[in-house]
Write a structure and sequence with these properties.
This protein is about 45% helix and about 15% strand. The protein contains ten helices and seven strands. Strands 3-2-4-1-5-6-7 form a seven-stranded parallel beta sheet, with helices on both faces. The longest helix is centred in the C-terminal third of the chain and has 28 residues. Helix 7 links the parallel strand 6 and strand 7. The structure holds guanosine-5'-diphosphate and magnesium ion (MG).
Length: about 325
């Protein structure tokens, strides 16, 4: 567990080293948490901690998320950007969708040192890999210029992908009124980008797109939230993918120029860690550390001093069994 990760090799995107770092994110043995904090501390010291942009691709099974992720990854590579891909596979959801790197061919014939793909099985855990996914996203985001994360999800996001990426893409397919209904009912959070994929299929796609635009316009005026970009793609033929990547890149530049990325990542981290603490120790644990104000302060302090490799949580003053 404690064998150190060779940072020079990690920075050089040596795939075996990246894989080992990701294993560390998915390790729950004693000492693994400390090893992970030590890794982040080293990344923070050299200024590469989470510097890359992260994009989440979410939506119901079978809409073409994996195919789209592969297409976006290719478009990034054409722009000479290095890409890490994390496909979160909820093994509990058996459906028509293919697992990335399985049916969907993402990698070119020649091995590409600038492209890394990893799948993670969630084994149906509540909250979906509460520790692993954020840590894996942070590692990939420190090594690659762009990180893509595929998760299944409609309605409330089981995998908290919103809190590990800078930009959320919701993918739907023509003729599926579900997403529209979810959005209207407020069950589903409004994504940053809405993609109607499989637009090669028929003009259903066009209709879906205009219906969505209308619904979102209504939502925008009702809630005064920013309307997402809506566009049609065919992940299979590649149509619309360049425009999607332009939208993603523009959003990345915008977040950076308005100095919003740092605060966004910090707020995400606080939410994730507070939820994780509550899952681990429950309300009684919260009382034991002196309430949520104290917990948040501690989490924020640890986050603001990553180079100190501090424990993310205050020490519990009474012993609690995890899983309360
Ligand atoms: N016609 C058409 N089929 C697509 C498109 N994108 C994906 N598919 C197909 O839809 C099926 C599910 O795709 P997949 O990427 O595995 O979906 P996921 O479950 O959302 O990851 C596969 O058979 C794909 O080949 C598209 O743009 N057009
Ligand atoms: Mg898939």
């Amino acid at each position: 567990v404690n064998r150190p990760i060779d940072l020079a090799r990690l920075r050089a995107r040596d795939k075996a080293t990246v894989a080992r770092a990701l294993d560390r994110a998915d390790d729950s043995r004693p000492g693994a948490e400390e090893a992970l904090l030590a890794l982040f501390a080293e990344l923070a010291r050299e200024g590469t901690d989470g510097t890359g942009a992260r994009v989440g691709v979410t939506g119901p099974p079978g809409v073409g998320k994996s195919t789209l992720v592969a297409a976006i990854a290719r478009a990034y590579r054409q722009r000479d950007l290095s890409v890490g891909v994390l496909a979160i596979d909820p093994s509990s959801v058996r459906s028509g969708g293919a697992l990335l790197g399985d049916r969907v061919r993402i990698a070119p014939d020649i091995p590409d040192p600038g492209l890394f793909v990893r799948s993670l099985a969630t084994r149906g855990e509540a909250g979906g890999l509460a520790r692993t996914v954020p840590a894996a996203a942070r590692i990939l985001g420190s090594v690659y210029e762009r990180t893509l994360i595929e998760t299944v999800g409609v309605g409330q996001n089981e995998t908290d992908v919103r809190d590990v990426v800078d930009t959320v893409i919701l993918v739907i397919q023509p003729g599926s009124g579900d997403a529209l209904q979810f959005l209207k009912a407020g069950i589903m959070e409004v994504p940053d980008v809405l993609v109607v994929n499989k637009s090669d299929q028929d003009e259903l796609a066009r209709r879906a797109e205009s219906e969505l635009k209308m619904a979102l316009h209504a939502l925008e005026s009702a809630r005064m939230s920013t309307a997402p970009s809506v566009l049609r793609t065919s992940a299979q033929s590649g149509q619309g993918v360049d425009e999607l990547v332009r939208i993603l890149e523009a959003r990345g530049r915008d977040l950076a120029e308005r100095k919003q990325l740092g605060p966004l990542r910090r707020a995400q981290h606080l939410r994730l860690e507070e939820r994780r603490f509550l899952r681990l120790y429950g309300e009684r644990g919260l009382q034991a550390v002196g309430g949520s104000g104290r917990l948040r302060g501690w989490i924020a302090d640890a986050f603001d001093r990553p180079d100190e490799a501090r424990s993310p949580f205050p020490r519990l003053s009474i012993r609690e069994e995890p899983g309360a």
